[in-house]
UniProtKB/TrEMBL annotation:
This is Uncharacterized protein. Residues 190-212 are annotated as: Disordered. It comes from viral metagenome. Residues 193-212 have a biased composition (Acidic residues).
């Protein structure tokens, strides 16, 4: 059972592990999995709030809608290129879906469980989407200057307590440390499909000037 009261859609080594950014508590956790004696997969959450650094694989950025209910979790995602060429629609496929993103990330040594620790980060919260979207805009600009496609090494410098409408959240501030070449480990890790649970904060207004 997840912390949101839902059964995990599947407990399997075929799914990439995840990182959660919780804007209600201002915490970032790495969700580790261990296989027990019965062959089932147990999960342990490790707080990495103070040491979180990651390399997002923007070549596999997905945009779409996410829904969590009593039946589990459902992702309706497509690549950024497909979403952009199709008109950048934010209209949900049905009631209960929230607009969000999903991107593979490689954890830095400061917060990784093991070497080549590739995970998924997904979110529907406006502050996280805006932060990642700004970095993606920098990535697009960098791609025009450097066709090799360098990726940003990103860290969360702090959480800022802010009021958005009726809600108060801890909003992460992202900073690019440097740009590096895309490692081959992403290609090795991204064969399986992923169906994991993102953080679901209250709904907020969007900034239409950002890429997504």
């Amino acid at each position: 059972m997840s912390e949101y009261g839902f059964e995990d859609p599947q407990s399997s080594a075929d799914f990439l592990p995840i990182v959660k950014i919780n804007c209600q508590s201002g915490r970032i956790v790495r969700v580790d999995r261990q296989q027990n004696a019965d062959g089932m997969w147990d999960k342990t959450e490790v707080d990495i709030s103070q040491v979180f650094q990651f390399l997002p694989d923007f070549t596999h950025l997905e945009i779409g809608h996410i829904k969590i209910d009593d039946n589990g979790i459902d992702f309706h995602m497509q690549s950024f290129a497909d979403w952009s060429s199709a008109g950048r629609s934010r209209k949900p496929p049905a009631e209960g879906y929230r607009f969000g993103f999903r991107v593979p990330i490689l954890l830095a040594k400061t917060c990784a469980k093991e070497p080549d620790d590739v995970r998924h980060l997904s979110h529907v919260g406006i502050s996280v989407r805006e932060g990642i979207s700004r970095i993606y805009a920098d990535y697009q600009q960098q791609m025009e200057q450097n066709p090799r496609g360098l990726l940003p090494l990103v860290k969360v410098t702090r959480f800022v307590h802010k009021q958005r409408g009726r809600f108060k959240n801890y909003e992460p501030e992202f900073e690019v440390i440097k740009w590096i070449e895309r490692p081959d480990v992403f290609d090795e890790a991204l064969a399986p499909e992923v169906d994991e649970e993102p953080d679901i904060p209250p709904m907020d207004d969007d900034d239409d000037s950002l890429p997504f």
